[in-house]
Amino acid sequence: MLEAIGLSVKINGIPVVKDSSFFIPEGKITAVIGESGSGKSMTVAALLRMLPVDAQAYGEICFMGTDLLKATDEEMAVLRKRKFFTIFQDALNSFNPSVKMDRQLYAFSAGRVGDDQDSFQKKMKAILGKLNLSSEILNQYPFELSGGMLQRCMIACALYVKPALLIADEPTSALDKVVQKEFLKWLRLLNESGTTVLIITHDLDVVADAADEMIVMRKGEIVETGAVADILARPTHEYTKRLLDSRF
Amino acid sequence: MTVKWIGKRMMLGVLVLFIVSFLSFFIMHASPGSSATAYYGGNAQTLTAAEKERISKAFALDRPLPVQYGAWLKQAVQGNLGMSAGVGRPVASILGERLPNTLLLFGVSMFFIIIGSIWLGMTAGMRPGSLLDRGLSAFSIASSSIPAFWLGILFIYLFAVTLGVLPSSGTGSLGGDGGFVDKMKHLIMPASVVVLTHVGLYARFLQESVKAELGSYYVMAARANGVMEREIRRGVLRNAFIPYLNYLGVTIPSFFGGSVIVESLFAWSGLGQLLVRSVMVKDYPLLMGGIMLTGLIVVISLFVIDVLMYMLDPKLRKGELGG
Q: Which residues of chain A have pLDDT under 50?
């Protein structure tokens, strides 16, 4: 589904991701794990071509036959709209505070696939119901909802558009354990409906709970990749072993 | 919009006007010289002490200041602003003659400042790093640094003295020979000076506000998810307008104060010029009336801005900001 070959990211000439190669298999949940500053979020920003102004990416990122680093802005805009869905860490700030939720959820879901208001209302209310959210939230503003509710709203949009690739950048770090478990349940549901998931996290419990494959990053380099069950049972790199030890 | 909210804002406006009247009354009476001077009609040197005392008694100027203020306030709330000490006519009638000119200058200037700053600020803010973006920063510094009186003198020299295309001073009259065209010709220079010395600062404020919004987390999330740029920009502008309106509200009193200089420079027959003259001749009843009318215009402008903010900012409507 997605393959990075020799991916490097430099900010003002300083490397933050170094010559990294990895593969995201289709239909699986892949987790990228590492401590803060390991280059996880910069890798995602490179995939989305949304790097900071002073950052530059090198190498190749192949997604369904397109090299994302060489794609035009128009091609990337189409991919972001048609194939990707991204959930960020800070759900509260992911929505415009002055715009009601129905308008924003429409833009994040039905607006992408070209549905009209009527079908959006019907479909979205059904999805919100599944996620234990009242349809009354459509008439509310983001600041009237909790972080967990807003993160579920993001998942609702992803369930609506059923993207080819869902990228979730630290989606559970601002959530409590109960809401986190719920969130991962919906992530798996989305995955079961055919969406490939790439989850960025520093939490090994999240990886163990939700992911099939994992990529371990440290100081901008990939130190270990493989199936979650294998790595958790037989870690080979010292850093991965330390990560596992710190879990218990 | 709730009746309670409107009532609260109106009460606040009344309180502001009361404080303005109180401070103005006591500060003007604390200035050097007698408040009776204007009543002497230029005969201060020839009047005897007894005649001066009689005048003071006649106009109740011999009473303690708090009593004088109380009497003035009692009349003012009934709509009676008293008689002008210098002109000998009702203050309300004199102000009524000048008010349309001030409102015309203030309204036209404000209209072009708002239209110009919104257009410049939005266009420049939406294109970070563009020539317009960088150019507006330089224009804003120039616009806010040029003193109004200097620009006014330059305009008079250029357009009235050298080119002779515009009148150097005066207000023009709608009923006169020139009619509407003449009035507009008289308005062009003072309004242009007010607009040019203010528009850059307001435009810069909006430009920075738009740029800050474009860098917001929600814009990144929307762009990452292929939300239409038109939709994103609409949300950005709505949010950028909230601090812009707030800034407009905060600066309206000083903006209004600044136009007094322009009115005097171009002999524009408005409240500003009247206030300056009443200070010179110590015509306190007229000065108090002028200050209160100016205060009322500012309070009404702020109320309109508050209503717009209320409509734009849902946090204000939902009471999150204690509105």
A: none
